[in-house]
């Protein structure tokens, strides 16, 4: 079984032409009666060996971090050591040289990226806690910005070396943390809702994801994979921030008006998901709409069966939407202006 990533690699290597690869995609799309662009492909597993290597890598990285915990470099026992993060990051990079750069294994590559970025961030936080053990609120925000900036630079270096699609999303999240830390440091004397910062970061990353998406409307290159992970990063930030700002979970129960507002917002997310052909927003906000619909059924009197009715309605709706995704996209496209639809992912499998 060949993945979209394998097709892209074959085209780059000159094994097959871009036209032949597209013809194969169109043929498979015809068999599935759904345009290939609507399938939202991304590479995660190439075989069970991916899982095997991932498990082995986790064991190795945990062991390396555990051993590094005993190396203190003169640091106080009350402060986190630097060595575990550095060793995990170095080990992750070394393993990526083989399993990512040479073997091109998807799932281990994601894990090794997380190990490298997480190790760097942990080491930087440990170092800053040793240099500034009594940093105040403003100092902590500045430390957050500094650590996030250096982590973003590390992500950039990893991207230039290994080109793992999720790396751009990790770097974008780190960059958002840089600005959040600077804003918190600048406004430390005045209150600011952290969910506003989270929403702003999510919207910025979403816009960045759309930039990648619009550069590959047919979704046949690595740029589409990068956009997928950026959308997956932005979606929970946007959904969580919006629903928290609405106060969905502030009280024990939410009123009918607020529940209807949540459902309306979820419908708006669905229309946006159809327009850009990305399902991340629908998944990220699913818990909130489940809670809102559950509250509506309870207030309607179906106390004992409210959970069952909620699951039945949402499950059936999402399955129906999945089955009719292309038709629903066609309906949404008819409502959008032509200059916008010309920049969104292709609707027709016969598009160039």
Order of helices and strands: HHHHHHHHHHHHHHH
Range of helix content: over 70%
Our estimate of the beta-strand percent is under 5%
The SS-based structural class is mainly alpha
Termini separation: 25 Å
Mean pLDDT: 85
Number of helices: 15
Would you identify the regions where 5 or more consecutive residues have pLDDT less than 50?
none
Question: How would a crystallographer describe the biggest sheet?
Answer: none
Total strand segments: 0
Rough shape? globular
Radius of gyration: 23 Å
Structural notes for this entry:
It is a single chain. It contains 15 helices and no strands. The mean pLDDT is 85. With 352 residues, the chain is mostly helical. The radius of gyration is 23 Å and the shape is globular. Among the domains are: 1-33; 250-352, no CATH class.
């Amino acid at each position: 079984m060949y993945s979209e990533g394998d097709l892209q690699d074959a085209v780059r290597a000159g094994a097959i032409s871009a036209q032949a690869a597209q013809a194969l995609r169109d043929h498979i799309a015809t068999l599935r009666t759904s345009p290939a662009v609507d399938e939202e492909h991304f590479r995660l597993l190439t075989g069970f060996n991916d899982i095997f290597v991932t498990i082995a890598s986790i064991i190795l990285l945990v062991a390396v971090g555990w051993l590094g915990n005993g190396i203190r470099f003169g640091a106080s026992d009350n402060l986190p050591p630097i060595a575990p993060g550095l060793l995990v990051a170095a080990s992750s990079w070394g393993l990526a040289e083989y399993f990512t750069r040479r073997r091109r294994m998807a799932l281990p590559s994601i894990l090794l990226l997380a190990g490298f970025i997480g190790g760097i961030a942990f080491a930087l936080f440990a170092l800053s806690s040793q240099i500034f053990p009594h940093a105040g609120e403003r100092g902590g925000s500045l430390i957050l910005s500094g650590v996030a900036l250096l982590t973003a630079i590390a992500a950039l270096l990893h991207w230039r070396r290994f080109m793992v699609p999720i790396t751009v999303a990790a770097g974008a999240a780190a960059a958002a943390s840089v600005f959040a830390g600077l804003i918190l440091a600048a406004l430390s004397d005045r209150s600011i809702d952290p969910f506003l910062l989270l929403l702003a970061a999510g919207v910025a990353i979403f816009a960045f994801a759309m930039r990648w998406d619009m550069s590959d409307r047919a979704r046949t290159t690595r740029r589409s994979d990068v956009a997928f992970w950026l959308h997956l990063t932005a979606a929970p930030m946007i959904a969580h921030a919006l629903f928290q700002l609405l106060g969905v979970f502030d009280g024990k129960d939410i009123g009918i008006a607020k529940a209807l507002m949540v459902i309306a917002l979820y419908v708006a997310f669905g229309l946006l998901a159809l327009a850009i052909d990305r399902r991340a927003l629908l998944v990220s906000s699913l818990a909130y709409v489940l809670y809102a619909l559950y509250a509506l059924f309870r207030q309607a009197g179906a106390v004992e069966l409210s959970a069952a009715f909620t699951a039945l309605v949402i499950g059936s709706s999402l399955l129906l939407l999945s089955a009719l995704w292309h038709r629903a996209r066609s309906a949404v496209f008819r409502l959008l202006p032509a200059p916008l639809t010309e920049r969104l992912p292709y609707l027709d499998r016969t598009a160039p």
